[in-house]
């Protein structure tokens, strides 16, 4: 089987599911960006490759590889990798939603079959739950989607023992860090996190920092608005916003060194992002050379502010992760944005797009618009690299 190894995105929910149930995290590939295929021929190799496909090492998860044929019966590719939180999908109230979600993803990807991997370190209940869910997954057969393989493993680590759920096969997991897919991702500059929790920590609120920045935010907003009002009266609002945007770009360049921003700088940044043209222009960075540095800054700001200011930063972060194909992180950031401000239109739009499986290339227009807004202010934020 040939896995897609180039891109990821997250579909937190598909269909009218309650927000409490995050339906799935998916990692579909995009043909126009696909590198030479890498083959995965054994269950142990497939299981070892899952962290690279997801971007983190899954724990207590149901991971489903969605298969797609070439139409001639000669090649089967992994078109998407879908992760479900095992505690959610084993809840009897959510089983039907699991099947509906997976069915929707399979239909969207024109799937011909699926492979399932259960990652669960709880030996007592794992076997029964795994077999029960495999039985439910087999209901997809009515739609022409066959469960072609299913395995259970306590952890995705070198030497961990897996066992077949549809047969008596057993074996050892290969070294996840040595897989060709992991190597491909590392060479592409993509990180493989030890756990999903490490991703959520990147945007988790920092209460002491929020308090310190909050003490400075009111005066920062007052200064920015007073300066903009004075510039508008003088007919120099564009020049004022140009300087403001250039200051944000300088902060991003400096953030690339890894040094955290000072409290006053974070407060000034939050105040500046309340100016809609500045905020919109910054979406253009997601396709350029400074995207990674910008993400570092948006993550800092998301940890340092509550409410709408947190939503602004998390939405910028989620969009950047979305268009570069990091679906799991995009989903975490966008969920944080919506949780911070349920009425934040951009965050809601992006999260809905992700949940519905909209491919990243469809959102590039937003980045192009951001670049044009910056150009209208007289600022060149750099060429498109991604």
From TrEMBL:
Pfam families: DUF4192. This is DUF4192 domain-containing protein. Residues 1-38 are annotated as: Disordered. It comes from Nocardia halotolerans.
């Amino acid at each position: 089987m040939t896995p897609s190894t180039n891109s990821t995105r997250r579909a937190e929910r598909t269909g009218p599911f309650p927000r409490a149930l995050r339906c799935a995290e998916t990692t579909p590939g995009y043909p126009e960006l696909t590198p030479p295929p890498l083959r995965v021929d054994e269950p142990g190799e497939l299981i070892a490759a899952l962290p690279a496909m997801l971007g983190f090492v899954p724990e207590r998860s149901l991971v489903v590889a969605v298969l797609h044929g070439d139409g001639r019966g000669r090649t089967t590719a992994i078109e998407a990798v879908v992760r479900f939180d095992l505690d959610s999908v084993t809840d009897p109230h959510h089983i039907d939603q699991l099947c509906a979600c997976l069915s929707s993803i399979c239909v969207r990807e024109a799937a011909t079959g699926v492979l399932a991997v259960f990652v669960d370190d709880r030996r007592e209940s794992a076997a029964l739950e795994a077999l029960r869910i495999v039985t439910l997954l087999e209901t997809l057969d009515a739609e022409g989607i066959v469960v072609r393989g299913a395995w259970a493993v306590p952890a995705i680590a070198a030497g961990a023992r897996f066992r077949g759920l549809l047969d008596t096969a057993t074996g050892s997991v290969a070294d996840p860090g040595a897989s060709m897919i992991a190597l491909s991702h590392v060479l592409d500059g993509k990180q493989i996190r030890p756990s999903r929790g490490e991703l959520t920590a990147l945007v988790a609120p920092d209460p002491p920092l929020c308090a310190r920045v909050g003490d400075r935010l009111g005066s920062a907003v007052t200064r920015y608005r007073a300066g903009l009002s004075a510039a508008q009266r003088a007919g120099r609002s564009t020049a004022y916003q140009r300087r403001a945007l250039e200051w944000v770009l300088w902060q991003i360049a400096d953030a690339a060194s890894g040094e955290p921003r000072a409290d006053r700088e974070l407060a000034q940044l939050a105040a500046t992002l309340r100016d809609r043209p500045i905020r919109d222009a910054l979406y253009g960075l997601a396709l350029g050379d400074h995207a990674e540095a910008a993400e570092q800054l948006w993550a800092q700001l998301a940890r340092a502010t509550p409410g709408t200011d947190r939503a602004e930063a998390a939405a910028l972060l989620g969009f950047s992760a979305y268009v570069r194909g990091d679906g799991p992180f995009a989903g975490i950031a966008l969920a944080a944005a919506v949780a911070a401000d349920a009425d934040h239109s951009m965050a809601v739009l992006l999260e809905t797009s992700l949940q519905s499986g909209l491919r990243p290339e469809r959102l590039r227009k937003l980045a192009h618009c951001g670049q044009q807004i910056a150009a209208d202010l007289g600022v060149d934020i750099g060429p498109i690299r991604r």
